[in-house]
Every structure is written in C-alpha cells, then in structure tokens.
Amino acid sequence: xxxxxxxxxxxxxxxxxxxxxxxxxxxxxxxxxxxxxxxxxxxxxxxxxxxxxxxxxxxxxxxxxxxxxxxxxxxxxxxx
Length: 80
What we know:
By secondary structure, this protein is an all-alpha fold. The protein has helices spanning 10-16, 20-43, 46-49, 56-77. It folds into two domains: 8-49; 53-80. The protein is flat.
C-alpha cells in the first residue's frame, strides 16, 4: 500500500496567501506570550509556591493598569 501525503491545492495556496500578512501579528503575539510565560515560570518559581491572591479587586485593578500601560506606550510610540 502506498501512502500519500495530503497536498495543498492550488486554490488553497492562491486564496490563502493574502491572509498571511493579516495573521502574522497574531502568530507573533502568541509566540511572544508563550516565551514570556515559559521564562517567567522558569525564572521565578516562587510565584508557584505562594498563596493565590485573595483580593480579586486588586487583581482586576492591576490587570487594568497593565492594559492602560500598553495603550499609553502605543500612543507614545505612534503604534509602532
């Protein structure tokens, strides 16, 4: 029995290629987030030993401040 590999059709390649530039920022974001997660988990193991945060309001405020920082940095750099 001969096994064949699945091939991409020409139609898939022709119509799929314009999507690549659109998907690149999302792929890079996912790769960067994964890298940061792994590096934080390896470099700061003490985070896994502590008790979970008991004040959810504080967590929400800190996440909001992080998002605000990113938005402000985007404005300062002109979105680049």
